[in-house]
Amino acid sequence: MRWWYWLIIIPLVLLIGFVIFVFVYTRPKSSPNRALVISDSLLTRLPQDGKLASKELEKARALLAKIKPTKPYIVIDTHANSLYLRTEDSILFKGTCSTGSGGELIDSLTGRKWSFATPRGVFKVTSKVTDPWWRKPDWAFLEDNEPIPSDPNERLDPEMLGAFAMGFGDNYYIHGTIYERLLGVSVTHGCVRLGSEDLKKLYDMVPIGTPVYIF
């Protein structure tokens, strides 16, 4: 390294060190009664007054008690492609799944765009279907370089979704797949795929209304 590089690097390092020092040692220190809590569905800071702080904590606890599931619920980890049916302190079922690829498809003729990600958030099982038929959307034909059919019957596929499907969110499903070798890989168009044995177990264990937490 040439000697004159140090004329640039040394002042830069000193400047960065000074900025870190100012940030760490001059920012306001937090105190226990200034912690963030959930109250009235918003993040708020506890007041300085002890009595008021206690009331806010009670409100937060009451709110958490309302949203805390009391029955088994589904958890889907889109990073690990794992699905759980569990309670607060035990796992009732665990399966390897496939979730959204995160990819996009753009129709070069119309400019329409589709994003293939599994939605994150809190949902619930809204429907249960045996022997579901898939109505193939436009993007499925574009993806396969096939013309979009005018006959609605040409969109129906009785095999792609497996033997069972559980609806959640806005037209998303937990369903089976003919591509079981890809389970554990993020390859779907947004739905959650399970192998046939795991899907049957989960379908039998889950009633409509079961909460679904996806992250």
Number of domains: 2
Q: Report the radius of gyration as a whole number of Å.
A: 25 Å
Which range does the strand content fall in? 25-35%
Percent in helix: 25-40%
Instruction: Find the CATH superfamily of the largest domain.
Output: L,D-transpeptidase catalytic domain-like
Secondary-structure element series: HEEHEEEEEEEHEEEEHE
Return the average pLDDT rounded to an integer: 83
Taking pLDDT < 50 over at least 5 consecutive residues as the criterion, the unreliable ranges are 3-13, 18-42
CATH architecture of the largest domain: Beta Barrel
Overall morphology: globular
- Under the CATH scheme, which class of the largest domain? Mainly Beta
Secondary-structure-based class equals alpha+beta
> N- to C-terminal separation?
47 Å
Q: Could you describe the 3D structure shown?
A:
This protein has 215 residues and is of the alpha+beta class. The chain folds into 2 domains: 3-64, no CATH class; 73-214, L,D-transpeptidase catalytic domain-like, CATH 2.40.440. The chain contains 4 helices and 14 strands. The protein has helices at 6-26, 50-67, 138-143, 196-205, and strands spanning 36-39, 42-45, 73-77, 82-86, 91-98, 103-106, 113-116, 121-130, 134-135, 156-157, 164-168, 172-175, 192-194, 211-214. The protein has an 8-stranded mixed barrel. The chain is globular and about 70 Å long. The two termini are 47 Å apart.
